[in-house]
Amino acid sequence: MYYEFFCPTKIMAGHAALEHLPFELETLGVKRPMLVTSPNAHKNFINHTFDSTQSQIVCTFDQVPADSSLETVQQVAQLYRQHHCDAILAVGGGSVIDTAKAANILVSEGGNDLLVYSGAHNLPKALKPLLVIPTTSGTGSEVTMVTVVANNNTKIAFASRYLMPNATILDARMTQTLPAHLTALTAMDALTHAIEAYTCLAANPISDAYATAAIQKISTHLFKVLENPKDLDARLELAQAATMAGIAFSNSMVGLVHALGHALGAVAHLPHGLCMSLFLPYVLEYNQSSRIADLLLPLAGAEIYAQTPVEHRAEQTINTLFAIRDRLFEQTQLPRTLRETQKVSKSQFEEIAEKALNDGSIIYNPKETSLDDLYQILEKVW
Ligand SMILES: [Fe+2]
Fold first, then answer.
1. Angstrom distance (rounded) from CA 5 to CA 10
2. 115 C-alpha to ligand 1 centroid (Å)
3. Which residues surround ligand 1, an ion (CB under 5 A)?
4. Cα of 196 to ligand 1 centre, how many Å?
5. Is this model's pTM higher than 0.90 or not?
6. CA 242 to ligand 1 centroid distance, Å
7. How far is the centre of ligand 1, averaged over its atoms, from the C-alpha of 309 (Å)?
8. Which tens digit of pLDDT belongs to each residue from 323-356?
9. Residue 31 carries which DSSP code?
């Protein structure tokens, strides 16, 4: 056995963590930060930071769309250069963070041709300082070495240790206005990161520790947040869980849920977190990994774990996930089947299955998967 574990991102978390931003910029030697954000996240940032902090920001790009693209990345880089900035502060969800990471490649390496750096480990040196303040608790992009950018109808991935942000601030005030359905689907993304990190072939003891802790936090606190969206303690728990799940899968891998989810997202244009929620229990049923049983403890708690005979624990883990999805459907109308999304037709199964089979995430899935297996899973999720 051999594995590596690497997370150089400094994490500042707490109910007044945002107040550490000026100090953190100073520590990184930043004099001219650029803010990259989306309209809603920008509003949040203005509401929860001091004027003195805001005045440090040299320029702002606040128009990152939900599905960012190469053009957006180039616009961000252009504005950065016009204002001679020396660092990027990303405030937003997955799309904002990924845009900031990709723009950082352009402004650090020079030129406008992002595609020459695509793939794994194609960056020669450290980039400009990148500080991230997430406004969703899901992607984990604040601690991962990956970014994905859309170009025409394809998604281009970049992976490099230099894409890992220098620092991230987790402050529940930044997620407290996240609507219920977005809270639910981003949490299901984080939960999937943790579960796939634990069950995939690249799992290791350190990523396991982060993964199980993240699962326990999400199962304990997600419904508290949905019942009381202003519960800042529970919001902070979810934020930490998403970051921990990000650290887990970034140092392990993901699996078939992500392979199918990427494919479905590309074909039917559904949000990533929703795609995760749709496939998660069905893929676990298919995988039958021996490690699924372990997850009953963090997912359902000590009492249920102890009451469940060893041979039923895997099944009970999966049942618990089905129950979570039923509750999310009741509370936020998060679809549970492909049919319930009203955005997918069976005629798209072929395209989804083929795309999933060619997705990099499938490589570390604990069970080898054929095209026929994928059709069977899609039929079940229908
Ligand atoms: Fe994900």
1. 15
2. 22
3. 189
4. 10
5. yes
6. 10
7. 31
8. 999 999 999 999 999 999 999 999 999 999 999 9
9. S
